[in-house]
Amino acid sequence: MSSPSVRVVPPRVEFREVRVGEVYRTTVTVTNVGGASRDIVLQRPPSKPFKFTFNAPPSSSVAPGLSVGGSLTFSPEQAVEVADSLEFLIDHLTTVEVQLRAYPPACKLLVDSLVDFGSVTATSQVIVKQLPLTNQGSAPGQYQVKFNGDPSVKLSPSRGTVMPGATQWLTVELSTHMPGLIEEMALVKLQSSPDRSLRIRAEVVDQALQIYDLQGSPLSCLSFGPVYNGTSRVERVVLKNNGPATCHWLGFLQDTAEGTELATELWKSTDAALLGRRRETLNSKTPHGPDPSQVVCCVPKQGRIGPYERITVSVRFSPLCKRPVEDRKRSSSAGPQEYAVFLLFQLVDTMHGFIPLNAPTAGHGVELAVMGLGLPCACCPSRAWTSVSWAARGASARTCCACCATSAPSCPFISASARWRSSGRSRPRGWWRRASVRTWCFRSPPANLVVSVCARRWTCWVM
Predict the structure, then answer these.
(1) Which CATH superfamily is domain 6-102 in?
(2) Which of these, 86, 99, 210, 353, could form a disulfide with 240 (CB 3.0-4.6 Å)?
(3) 16-65, pLDDT tens digit by residue?
(4) What is the pTM of this model?
(5) How far apart (Å, rounded) are the C-alpha atoms in residues 246 and 424?
């Protein structure tokens, strides 16, 4: 109990880091802060190993503003914590108590209670976090970690000793081979301190790429529709990184994927198509069919994409006529050719690492089917413009002819280059025949391309 008329300094006495055989001293003073004299009596002296020497008579009157006191001595006999008190009686009515404490050297271990890995990707790699365990005391302290939870989480070292003022780093390892939510608890036992519960949290997600159209809808097949041979059409798609980590991606064609079609002539029967393909393979020195990379390509083909970021990728479809030039000269009734190829967008960062046999196979790439129809194109003058102007050597003559061409609704225009040549078997001697190349651009044509019989003396075909 304290009294408003007196003040004790210090109100509490503590001896820390005491050692056996040493002597520790301090002074305790009692001051009369009231307006009248007070009788201050030492009522209860401390017990051994504390010793208090009062510098005033056992019972004395202290005037206002004056003080009495004494010397407090502590001599530890054992390395244990000791508690005692001093009691002063004021005017034989009020008791003022001073707490006495002595603490031997001890450890004070501190450790955090949470290890949060956050959201990580399932890359079959090991993520490591360091947890500090600090000893702020004056004596070495021991610890022990007990954990029997998820085997994908490991803590080390499980026990040890931390010296005064030092820090021991506990290693927490997380294996990211399977997606899922991890919530685990570990018990850390500390010397001279209460046990601490260590919470370990992580969310392992399967990072993958996703493809959307420009309107935001998922896209698995990109159809270009009919496109004339020798022309190109470009469509844009959106590539999204559905994961919390920045990664590198790569886009490439799957040449050997099932269902791939390159310049397949749909208007022929199966037997005729197989026979023609066999005949072209035997007569050609180059591999059958066009190069897939010349038909379909994406820009860019690779790059870096941030967490949950979206980028735009342009896909170009350029159908090519696989028939030789000689066949195109002899025939003007070529049919449409179907193309179906598959683009694979792959995460490069997830292609490495160890995956256990019992872990589910996660698809870190996304496939986009690209379909299109290649239409042959022929431009020919109508019979009304078949008049021929002959020119002598060194002179020139122009022939005006009307070409008739149409296009599918999805092809707004076509730019075609045609070569004109003379097909007559006889001409006057000394006259000169000159070939020329012309280019037309047909905009908003009708629904179908009209291929008609050319004039006897002039023919044209698309190069």
Answers:
(1) Immunoglobulins (2.60.40.10)
(2) 210
(3) 888 888 999 999 998 888 888 888 888 777 778 888 888 766 667 888 88
(4) 0.54
(5) 68
